[in-house]
């Protein structure tokens, strides 16, 4: 996050607030794209009685949190926030959280750390790329109750949620490796959306395989094919 005096009257950053109307008092606050999935919070208390011009680019949203609950979701575009305690004002006791919803969430499983289905099921390898489709539901699931976020911890929670969704989607196929491999070959991203939607997520891409190829059949005994044995 950066804060500095704005030398121009326009808004030229992806996410920022600017106090109005005194140009001399204008402060341009921008969130850098390389600073992560969740940024903030921006405390509104010190802006009491002032107006904030909020500009969001596509793929950026702002969440207004008051008393630990989500009050508003600001989508891309321009917004004027009148901060105070009066009717129609944005409560100065609140704060803003910024989400980079355009950033895909890539979940991967490798042969070293496969996705284990059940206690005895075959391990899976591959990846799922998720998107934040419901910022409010994503906040309530993964961010609520905290004001400092560790992105690695958030991604661990998302990873656990994705595993649970896959387990439910694949449950009807049992744990037989052959049947599971056939189901995975026909798995579509939309197949996970019913499970992920309540969490504010959707699946963009998925490619999953059993970590070990299924054994189609046991080797058959064949007479006359025993190397090293002589005939009488």
Question: What would the keywords be for this entry?
Answer:
disordered C terminus, 2 domains, 232 residues, Tetrahydropterin Synthase, Chain A, four-stranded antiparallel sheet, 4 helices, 15 strands, 18% helix, alpha+beta
Roughly how many Å is the radius of gyration?
26 Å
- What is the approximate shape? elongated
- The residue-averaged pLDDT reads 77
- Give the low-confidence spans: 1-15, 24-28, 217-232
- Indicate the CATH topology of the largest domain: Tetrahydropterin Synthase, Chain A
Residue share in β-strands: 25-35%
User: What is the correct CATH architecture of the largest domain?
Assistant: 2-Layer Sandwich
Classify the secondary structure makeup into a structural class: alpha+beta
- Please indicate the count of domains: 2
């Amino acid at each position: 996050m950066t804060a500095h005096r704005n030398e121009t009257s326009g808004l030229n950053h992806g996410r920022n607030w600017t106090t109005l109307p005194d140009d001399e008092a204008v402060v341009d606050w921008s969130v850098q794209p390389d600073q992560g999935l969740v940024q903030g919070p921006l405390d509104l208390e010190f802006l009491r009685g002032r107006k904030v011009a909020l500009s969001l680019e596509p793929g950026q949203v702002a969440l207004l949190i008051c008393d630990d609950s989500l009050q508003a979701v600001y989508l891309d575009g321009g917004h004027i926030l009148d901060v105070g305690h009066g009717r129609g004002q944005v409560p100065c006791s609140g704060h803003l959280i910024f989400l980079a919803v355009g950033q895909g969430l890539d979940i991967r499983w490798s042969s070293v750390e496969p996705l284990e289905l059940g206690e005895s099921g075959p391990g899976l390898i591959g990846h799922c790329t998720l998107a934040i489709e419901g910022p409010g539901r994503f906040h309530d699931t993964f961010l609520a109750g905290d004001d400092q976020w560790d992105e690695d911890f958030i991604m661990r929670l998302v990873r656990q949620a994705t595993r649970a969704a896959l387990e439910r989607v694949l449950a009807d196929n049992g744990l037989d490796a052959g049947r599971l491999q056939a189901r995975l070959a026909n798995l579509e991203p939309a197949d996970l959306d019913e499970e992920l939607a309540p969490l504010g997520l959707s699946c963009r891409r998925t490619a999953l395989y059993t970590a070990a190829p299924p054994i189609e059949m046991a080797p058959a005994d064949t007479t006359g094919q025993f190397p090293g044995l002589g005939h009488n």
